[in-house]
Sequence to fold (236 residues):
Amino acid sequence: MQQVERLLRGQADQDDRYRTFNARIVATADPGTMLGVRVPRLRQVARQVERAQWRDAFLAELPHRWYEEYLVHAFVLDGERDLGEAVRGLDALLPHVDNWCVCDALNPKAFHDPRALGDDPAATLLPLARRWMASGHTYTRRFGVSVLMRDLLGPGYDPSLLRVAVEADNGEYYVRMMVAWYLAEAMVTHERDVMEVLADPALDPQLRRMAIRKGIESLRIPDQTKQALRLLRQGT
Fold:
């Protein structure tokens, strides 16, 4: 959309250093679609889009031309408090996502709002997460795992969800890394459950190594647990 492109070009860095750096970090996105706008400025643009009369027209205009348009789109969706609108927006956007950065930016407020979810968040969110995790599209599947991590490690948590995430691992790097990240995050509050999953001989060895590495790197996991992870790594 021309209005958004003008806003983005007005916020882009004047040299190519940030764009070049970002292209290396977000490796699967086409560098030719990057304008070089930093995230705080993208959030400013998203706030402008949110207030604009043409907000809905922008969200409906898919696919976008620019990488940064996808991030603005994600940030606008993140402000959505209506669960049905959030899900419809996600279902429209996710098939066009081609990188982890846009995928991980998606986190609608409706997914954290008790007024939208009621007393049982899992009853609403788990079927959605399962549907997304069954997708053949890498970043839709990754997003489904992220819902388990962000929204169902507190109220709605059940140990069986760890296995649900593991079953979503299809061997693709960006899916497997999200599963490993989820297991490491779950370890903070559900250590025993996660250690049982990691010790399972049937668990894919690479996924185990990745989850152990994420756990050891975490600043929220105690040293005693990290030592247990190192011992588990040595024994497998």
